[in-house]
Write a structure and sequence with these properties.
About 25% of the residues lie in helices and about 0% in strands. By secondary structure, the chain is mainly alpha-helical. The radius of gyration is 20 Å and the shape is elongated. It has one domain (about 1-65). The chain is built from 2 helices and no strands. InterPro entries: FAD/NAD-bd_sf (IPR036188). This is Protoporphyrinogen oxidase. It comes from Chromobacterium violaceum.
Length: about 70
């Protein structure tokens, strides 16, 4: 049996994995709050572009029009 375990997954997934062996720890994981967030990265061939794209970032709240 391991002395320590590292779960490199979101808390909800960790809760599902832990529940059979450590239900109390699974409950702790389920209570971890998350902000609804998505990170999108795109890689483009700069030499193939007619002109450079402006660097932009946008934050949109969930449920809002894009």
């Amino acid at each position: 049996m391991a002395d320590r375990v590292v779960l490199a997954v979101p808390a909800a997934a960790a809760a599902e994995l832990l529940h059979p062996l450590a239900p109390e720890m699974a409950d702790v994981c389920r209570r971890i709050p998350y902000a609804p967030l998505a990170v999108v990265s795109t890689l483009l061939d700069g030499e193939a572009m007619e002109k450079p794209l402006p660097a932009t970032a946008r934050c949109i709240r969930a449920g809002r029009a894009r």
